[in-house]
Amino acid sequence: MTSGRRRTVALVVCGLGWLAATGTASAHGGSLAGGGRESLTIPTWLFLSTGGAAVGASFLLASFVTDRAFIERIHDWGRPLSGNFEGILRLAGQLIGLAGLAAVFVVGFIGPTNARTNLAILLVWVGWWAGLTMTTYLVGNSWATLNPFKTLAGFLPTLDRSYPARVGSWPAVGGLLVLVWVEVVSPLADQPRLLASVVAGYAVVTLAGALVFGPDDWFAHADPVERVFRYYGRFAPIGRDEDGLRLRLPGMDLSTPRLVDGPDEVAFVIALLWVTTYDGLVTTPVWRDLTTPLVAAGVPPHLLYPVALGVGFAGFLGVYRLAVRLSRDMSDTYLTPAVLARRFAPPLVAIAVGYHFAHYLGYFLVLAPSLAVALTSPFANPAVVPTVDLPAWFGAVALASVIVGHLVAIWVAHAAAYDLFPARLQAIRSQYPFIAVMVFYTMTSLWVVSQPEVALPHL
Prior knowledge:
This protein is mainly alpha-helical. Helix content is 68%, strand content 4%. The chain crosses the membrane at residues 45-66, 87-110, 122-146, 167-188, 194-213, 266-283, 303-323, 344-372, 392-420, 432-450.
């Protein structure tokens, strides 16, 4: 590896550390929950440097585990979960998914307009994107059964056109970025009619794609939401193999070969990691301070958000590709950068899991009572809705979840390296650049979580 490349990695990590060395740590919350994160008394530079050091130290500890048989036993451990109720549970899940979609349309269009009492708003953001997503990586992927669009597509005829292989999963990458951009810049969490309209538009696009290419190909390649839940489900302790449901250690399935197959799927993993960060980044005071002079100079405010989304994604993807090239040089392998990129992308899902949990756990707990009330009385509009007041120490849970996600990612990448490279020293050296990238991602996530939440500026 050249000294110039070493300096590039060092400057990336050190530059982020410099950016993080201001402010105080605070917990993170959601917009419906009213923001209001409580500050911790720990200086930001201290806990960020501690988090980065924890990631580095965990790599050193993992590097001492060189017994391939031991590593394989950990990742292959599992227990079959037998049961005769799979068919009944699948039918019940499909009915629940269809009922939830119907509730979003009916209550979204004709229910109360107050976002804090409207079932469509609470069901989508609190019940689905926060609650159901957390159960996906904490328990198992139930969205594969609940997905109402997949259920509806199964009843429709199909033209069975061949899905173009050259397109691959790039529509899912673009779709994920567009969905997050729409979520950020539009008042989807405040206007039930708008939310129901966007869901209806998504349904039209999804069912049209399934109609043309068939449900199997469409949901396997092009649908971004299905792919998000699929990757999150690979982190969960309950998964499915050729023999049925299986209990496994959390995160270990991310080391499975060919889980990510192609540059399009690598890009989707990076996009998944980036959008969880971007969603919090745009509510920080730093984003407000950076964009205020630009808006004052005449830059359209609505242009800033998609530009930042695209530039940030390109930056995250560029840093990862740089790490891949450095890894190939340091490990002195005949394997191509494309092979390394595919093999070491899945561990990054664990980082996305940790940040999603940090971002949405408090949000879900605060608003879960409001969702429960709305489920029992979907057309009521009470003047007071119940919420939960989280204790001041709760912000530490969010910070810890980010660290845990990165620690799991390090171990999974370590196992993948030993599966990929024949020499032990070669496997360890291949991880040096990826550890630098994970420290970069760790400090970015922790810094975003640490910032006080402000309203989206200029919108």
